[in-house]
Write the C-alpha cells for this entry.
Amino acid sequence: MIALADCNNFFVSCERAFQPQLEGRPVVVLSNNDGCVVARSNESKAMGIKMGTPFFQVKELVDKGALVVRSSNYTLYGDLSSRVMSILESAFPGIEMYSIDEAFLHLDGLDMKNVPSLSRDTILKIRRWTGIPVSIGIAPTKTLAKVANHFAKRYAGYKGVCTIDNDEKRLKALSLTPIDDIWGIGWRMAPKLKSWGMPTALDFHNADESWVYRTMGITGLRTWKELHGVPSIVDEPVERRKSICTSRSFADMITDKEELEHRVADFAAICSRKLRDEGSAAYCINVFLHTNRFREDLGQYFPNATEKLTVPVNSTQEVVAAALKACRGIYREGFKYKRAGVTVFDIVDANAVQGVLFGYDIDTRDKHDAISAVMDRMNSKDNQTIRLASQRRGHYADGIRREHCSGLYTTSIDDIIKVH
DNA sequence: TCTGGGGTCCTAGGACCC
DNA sequence: TCTGGGGTCCTAGGACCC
C-alpha cells in the first residue's frame, strides 16, 4: 500500500495562512506576469472559474469585489511547502516529494490498521503548525492513491483521509470517477476514450489489456495495470535533474536586440545559479524566443538554438556567454518578442568534471568558479546585488507584471513585523 | 489591451553502420 | 513492376504531470 498527501488548493491556502480574512471568500492565484488563473479556492471553483482562465476574463469580478486575486509568490509557497514536507517526513517511514504540494508516503513496516489514524493526526498537525489543509489517499498503487485522494478532498465525511483497500471499494470508486480525472489520462486521450464508450475510469479498467497496449502504448498500459491494483509506476529517486529551464513572458513585447540579450543573459545567470546550487554542470545551453502567439496580426517566429560545449559549465560567465551566442544566432529584426527562455541540459556532476579537462585552461576555470562563489554569496539575499554587465540594470523582475502580490511573510523581516 | 512556467518519458523516423 | 535485412543512435515532437 502507498499513500498520497496533497495540499488542498495549495497556493490559495498559502495566501490564506497569512491572511485569514480570505477564509471562506472566493480567491484565485495568478501565474507569472499575472497571466492566467493557476489556483482556485473551493468558492472560486464553485463560481465556474476554470484552471488556466486568462485573468482579463475574470477581472470584472475582482473590480466588483466578488473575487479576490493574488499574484503568485513562489518564495512563500516554496517555504511553506518545505515545512509541510518536513512534517510528513517525520511522521512516515519514507516520503517521495512529487511536486511542490504533493508527496507519496511509504508505509513499509506500519500496521495498516493504524495508517488512517496516523494520517488524520498528521493532517491536524500540519494544519496547526502551518495553516495548510492536506488530504491523504491510501491504496495499493500510486494511481489508485490519487483516486482515493480525490475522494478525501471532495467529501467532508472522510475527514481528509480515504482508503481503497479492497476490490469492492476500488470498483465503486472507479465507477464514480470520470476518465479525465485519472492520473496519466490527459486532454488528448480523454476525449478519445469517451468517444469509444469509456466515460468512467471503470469502463477503461474493463477494457481489454492488449487493446490498451495497442492503442495507448506502454504508458497507457501502466495506468490500466495500476487501476487493477498492480503497481506499475516505478519510483526512481531522481538524483539529478536532466534539464533546467528559466523562462518568462514579458509585460511588453520586445523588439530591441540589446534589450532581449539582457533578458536572456538574466535567464542564463539564473540557470547557472540553479546548476551550482545542485552541484551540477551542463554541456548544452539552449535559448528559445517566442513572439506573441495570440497576436495573429503580427509576424510569428519561434526559433531556438543550442550551444554544445566541449566541457560542462556552471559559471555565470560561461553559461551567459553560451546563451548570448545562441541568442545572436536566432535573433531576427522586425519581430516583437513576448517570451524567451534558457534551458541547460546534458547535465553531469560538477565535481566529476575536475581532472578530465585536457586541453582546457584550468586557471581560467578556477577563476570563474571563484567569481561565481563570490557572486552566490553576495546574491544570497536579494539575488541581484552583483551581476554581469551583459545582464540588465534594474531588478530582473522588472518588466514582469505582478500587481496583486502579497508580502514575503516567511522570508522578509519587514513583512513579519507588519503581520505581527 | 490582457493569455504561465518547469519538468519527465516515450515513440517514430532519419542517419548511419555492416 | 521491380528495388535486402538487420542493427544502433540521435532527435524532434507528442503526451503527460504539477
